[in-house]
Amino acid sequence: MDILIAKKIKKKYSENHEVLKGVSLRIKSGEIVGLIGESGSGKSTLVRCLLMIEKIDDGEIFFLNKPLHRMNKKSLRHMRPYMQVVLQNPSTSLNPKLKIIDSLMEILDAHPHLEPVHIKDVRDRRETCAKRLLEMVGLPDRFLSCYPHELSGGQKQRVAIARAISIAPPLIILDEPTSSLDVYSQHQILILLKELHNELGLSYLFISHDLPTVYTLSNKIIVLKEGKVIDEFCKEELFSSQRHDDVKQFISLYEEG
Predict the structure, then answer these.
(1) Dihedrals phi, psi of 237, to nearest 5 degrees
(2) Looking at residue 76, what is its pLDDT?
(3) Residue 39, exposed/middle/buried by CB under 10 A (0-12, 13-18, 19+)?
(4) Which of 36-45, 117-126, 163-172 has the lowest average pLDDT?
(5) Most buried among 16, 17, 192, 241, using CB within 10 Å?
């Protein structure tokens, strides 16, 4: 089953500044798609377009078989909980004025009709529900009463992930989720994301400029350059003989970027 289909997405900010030049991608249920590209390739613009934060100039976006590009604001508000995003900087992901329990429960509080299987037995007990979410990302429940500034970068990113999985959305967009963390925390977050993917059957769009990181997590990799998809291949192809020279070129490109 296809979760997300984007067809020939175009976006420009001025007559001479076209950022996306006909980008297409497809994400199936349970799939982890890696999107790699150097700085300025259009990755962040694509995220904003997929989330319909920015209106596309041309193309089509289908999410759960529904045409997002044709929806009005009210319909989009109804769909947004089902496509969550984890951003690069966890400090900007969490409201500094909210305690961790309130950040965790923000989506569930706003949508009381949603009863995800992984919290269904504790859905009507707010604190117990928040504890369950923290437990799923490897954090102690004493953090519930803390504010974001009291947590480390890695801990804040775990909270952001816990909030994103709170309703077990069909798709989570991971926009450079490890790039602001130290090497140890990066590794631990990647392990966590893989575990949650297996446990909840999630689909990810994992965006990065770092090929080895994308390789660790993704089933399929898409290469974006100057607003265009220039290549797409399965993980198994990365180190096949016919891909050897391409991989060396990609690694060189993104190390420079």
Answers:
(1) -80, -15
(2) 92
(3) exposed
(4) 36-45
(5) 192
Please determine, for residue 254, whether its predicted confidence score (pLDDT) is greater than 50: no
Concatenated DSSP letters of 149-164: GGS-HHHHHHHHHHHH
Q: If 0-12 CB within 10 Å is exposed, 13-18 middle and 19+ buried, where does residue 108 land?
A: buried
- Residue 239 pLDDT > 60: no
Average pLDDT over residues 22-40: 93
| Burial of 252 from C-beta contacts in 10 A (0-12 / 13-18 / 19+) | exposed
Measured CA to CA in angstroms, residue 146 lies from 98, 99, 107, 246 at distances of: 9, 6, 19, 47
User: What does the block give as tokens for 216?
Assistant: 């660790």
Tens digits of residue pLDDT in 86-116: 998 888 889 999 999 999 999 999 999 889 9
Rounded to whole angstroms, the Cα distance separating 46 from 6 reads 10
* Residue 169 confidence (pLDDT) above 80: yes
What does the chain come to in residues?
257
Q: Which single residue is written with the structure tokens 């504010």? A: 147
Helices 126-136 and 153-164 cross at an angle (nearest 10°) of 120
Strand residue runs (E) in 64-202: 66-67, 83-86, 171-175
User: Which pLDDT value is given to residue 250?
Assistant: 54
d(Cα 147, Cα 43) in Å, to the nearest integer?
Answer: 31
Residues 249, 251, 252, 254, CA torsion sign: positive
DSSP, res 42: S
Give me the residues paired with residue 231 across strands.
223
